[in-house]
Amino acid sequence: MTDISLSDPAMARKTAPPAEARSVRLPTQWIGVAPFFIFAVLFLILPTMYLIVGAFQDRDGGFTLTNIFKLFEQPTIRQSYMVSIKISLWSAVLGALAGLGIALAIVRGGLPEWVRSSTMTFSGVASNFAGVPLAFAFLATLGRLGLVTILLRDLFGFNLYATSFNLLSSWGLIAVYLYFQIPLMIVIITPALDGIKREWGEAAATLGATNWQYWRMVVIPVLWPSFLGTVILLFANAFGAIATAYAFTGSSLNIVPISLYAQIRGDVLGDPNLGYALAFGMIFITGLANIFYIWFRTRSERWLK
């Protein structure tokens, strides 16, 4: 039998396709994602760059650091950042704890499957329910003439607003934010809970570990990066919300998104470049929060794969 080897130069020349027969293949695989990249560039990257450049310019277009210094020098701006951080942090922590409890109940609580499917469906819808409809829903429910307020007054003789309760306050806005923070936590943390293998609990029980030891030494360390990452994501989600806050409180609450809107809406007292600096500060804080979220999520995925 004749031994045919591809290392033979003559054979290699015969098997190689002619140069003129080779066709240039267009990168058609990028056509499907092209609309996403175009949308991201036009409505995310370019506006962000425009805001960053404007934060370091004066009214005449010259370079200046005055707008950045005003973020630290003006008391109202410092207070707006502190109030925004407070509202975002409390809504993130409370939403994460409540969402984690609900997610644990539907994943490991032995509830019927329809409870989980219904909860996940509602959470997917409620996590995106914000803006004017959400603000109106809370005002119509817990406002001074809201349904629950009137029922408590007429049926039980309890005046909710006589107890120093004020819906149009920081804690009122936190309660409104919890409406979409808790469902968002459920949607994000449920896959992490599903990633906890039952074999780990069986192995821990075989080795003589108690249920508390299993949770303290296995489950909590595995879930901790996912939990912290989700808290940071909820913080960024609340920190950048403006439609809900403005529709709910108007300009009565001094938070960064409302202060930003007041600076760039174009009235006599407005300073667009200071508004750009406020936006730059928000971009910096939310960007830093998202970096930490990605880092924590990467750590958690190592265990949950």
Automatic annotation (TrEMBL):
The keyword Flavoprotein does not apply. The lineage of its organism: Bacteria, Pseudomonadati, Pseudomonadota, Alphaproteobacteria, Hyphomicrobiales. InterPro entries: MetI-like, MetI-like_sf. Signal peptide: none annotated. The keyword Transport applies. The chain crosses the membrane at residues 30-53, 87-111, 131-152, 173-193, 213-236, 243-262, 274-296. PROSITE patterns: ABC_TM1. One of its GO terms (cellular component) is plasma membrane. Keywords: Cell membrane, Membrane, Transmembrane, Transmembrane helix, Transport. It is found in: Cell membrane. Residues 81-295 form the ABC transmembrane type-1 domain. One of its GO terms (biological process) is transmembrane transport. Pfam families: BPD_transp_1. This is Putative spermidine/putrescine transport system permease protein. Belongs to the binding-protein-dependent transport system permease family. CysTW subfamily. Its main location: membrane. It is a multi-pass membrane protein.
